User: What shape does this take?
Amino acid sequence: MKAVIFAGGMGTRLSEETDARPKPMVKIGDYPIIWHIMKLYDHFGIDDFIICCGYKGEMVKSYFATYCQRYSDVTFDFRNNENEIVIHKDSAERWRVTLINTGANTQTGGRLAQIKDYVGKDDFCLTYGDGVADIDIHALIKFHKEHDRIATVTAVQPLGRFGALDIEESAVKRFIEKPSGDGNWINGGFFVLKPSVFDYIPSPSDNVKWEEEPMRALTEAGQLQAFKHKGFWQPMDTLREKNYLEALIQKREAPWMLWNEEQKQGALKVVS
Assistant: This one.
């Protein structure tokens, strides 16, 4: 199965970082957030990626073009005009990455429409390039197949934006830094889709938002199923959220890093 990742938005609410780079290339820890998303899929055996590039897409392409050299020992031999490159101790992931230029101003529905020919005839995963979760991808795919709908969306309940005060009479009994939200389920990304989903994207598609007309049409047709994820989920829309994710990594409490035993154990201690 392949995983498609939206990586073309401008990330205007994170302009401190995205003036210089596309949002999926903003680092949390030592790696761009898109790497963390790909590592999650890889943890569940999905290593074939299609990345929908747009704003500053050349930076995404450059990152993966030099990926092996970036994380391995390398010899560059310029003698005799041969320009030979030898990779030593190759520690790069065994990924297949297809990068598609879907346009700087194209909306998400248009980006998805443009990669139709690269997906093939099998079901595929889709998510955004700016959010992480400790989601069980195997369970998500199993759920999708059992319900046999065209589309499955991961539904999440985000934490409240502001800290909450637990008050009895006028005395503050407790401060809750990350309170529960209003209980509503929202689109958390991490979709699983059948190829027939492309029939629900109107043409011309450049100005079509995947989250609007296509998802509404799928809903009206009874073809959109929700996989409820009650674990960790966090987008990176603002500098505050970027710093929050960064702090979790630094404290070795990053729940989404299921491939990293040290981070996973730290996250489990926090939950308990």
Q: What stands out?
A: The first helix runs from residue 15 to 18. The chain has ten helices and 16 strands.
